[in-house]
Design a protein that fits this description.
12 strands, 7 helices, single chain, 367 residues, alpha+beta, elongated, twelve-stranded antiparallel beta sheet, 2 domains, 23% helix
Length: 367
């Protein structure tokens, strides 16, 4: 997984340089790898990831053609590269329609068929688009995915040829389908969408998360703040109402303010109020979040927004409160790095200017 870590470093340093010059309105992002995949493209990060790991090569004219349908032969090539398959000495699968494919493509097709990733038959249809249902079966076969989901797609009945494969993709959070509750199994798959699916299989950071990262009201939280001296914050759950979960955040002398942790379909906010109702702090994470997601947020009118970018979704960290896995790592344009747990919320903050921990969870006490 060396490519994985190179990719994370590349993303982080790209942003680190970006926030140094953020205040002169330079756009944060990568230089486009392909002429037709700008930084703003919804699959740009996934496509660039596959380029960096050597899985995608694009076309000779430096285009990727993201909206074009991906063909069976292109999928065979990308799967063979992803799995680093040995392409030599594979048996002839007996297809009648491979006479016009180039030597590298032929070897990749032969290898993926020999591995049982694609089915045998009379024709391979190398230049024809692969459908979303066929893609699901290929990914399940190639990466030996397991699991079942309670999610049901309206257009994928249980007697569908690809029902189990699609259900397995859903169980692994590789797909959530369309907003109307369909999967469209017979629809041809675009090159951009295939890149998104494949990236999610290879790198869990790309799997979008649509819930969590708020504070768990079943626990009291104790944090240490490291400034000129060390102090502690105690997060104690009070009650819940239509605004969200109310917490009292106090110091060692039991002096503090109330915060509300609000979660809805758009994301979560953690907002602190003085007794007069004035907002003194406000943190926001929008859903869904995944590697590369970014947003800007200002907690008061007239304040300069801070820009945040997700640089990892699978970090692991140990604090005095324990070891936490699958953490979301966020870098902000004002020079901080945050770590959030899907189950427990904020775990740690680092100051990137000093490369030191300035705030961390030291104890979780069950209520």
């Amino acid at each position: 997984m060396e490519g994985k870590f190179r990719w994370k470093r590349m993303l982080f340093y790209s942003f680190f340089i970006g926030f140094i010059i953020f205040f002169i309105n330079v756009k944060i992002g990568f230089a486009a790898t392909f002429r037709d995949v700008p930084d703003s493209h919804p699959s740009a990060l996934e496509i660039n990831f596959l380029v960096e790991t050597g899985i995608i090569k694009g076309y000779p004219d430096q285009t990727f053609k993201p909206s074009n349908n991906v063909t069976n032969s292109q999928v065979a090539l990308m799967i063979a590269r992803s799995l680093k398959l040995d392409l030599n000495n594979r048996p002839n699968p007996g297809f009648k329609d491979l006479s016009k494919v180039d030597a590298d493509t032929y070897k990749a097709i032969v290898a993926v068929v020999d591995e049982g990733i694609f089915p045998k038959g009379e024709n391979f249809r190398p230049g024809e688009p692969i459908t979303r249902g066929e893609m699901a079966q290929v990914l399940v076969n190639a990466f030996h995915l397991k699991g079942s989901s309670k999610q049901q797609f309206k257009d994928v009945p249980k007697n569908s040829k690809y029902y189990q494969a699609i259900n397995t993709l859903a169980a692994n959070n590789i797909t959530t389908g369309y907003e109307d509750g369909t999967f469209k199994p017979n629809q041809p798959l675009t090159r951009a969408h295939f890149s998104t699916f494949l990236s999610r299989v290879l790198e869990p950071d790309f799997i979008p998360v649509s819930s969590g990262y708020g504070y768990n009201k079943d626990y009291q939280y104790i944090y240490e703040l490291y400034e000129d001296y060390t102090s502690r914050d105690y997060f104690t759950y009070l009650s819940s109402d239509t605004s969200g979960d109310w917490w009292f955040v106090s110091d060692e002398n039991n002096q503090g303010i109330k915060y509300v942790n609000h979660v809805d379909q758009k994301g979560f906010t953690f907002k602190g109020y003085l007794e007069n109702g004035e907002v003194v702090t406000d943190f926001y994470i929008p859903y869904p979040v995944k590697l590369g997601a970014s947003w800007s947020y200002a907690y008061k009118n007239g304040f300069r927004p801070v820009t945040y970018i997700v640089t990892s979704m699978t970090e692991r960290m140990t604090t005095p409160a324990g070891t936490f896995s699958s953490l979301m790592e966020i870098v902000s344009s004002d020079g901080f790095q945050y770590y959030y747990s899907k189950e427990y919320g904020h775990i740690c903050t680092k100051d990137l200017k000093t490369n030191s921990i300035v705030y961390q969870l030291i104890q979780l006490k069950k209520r």
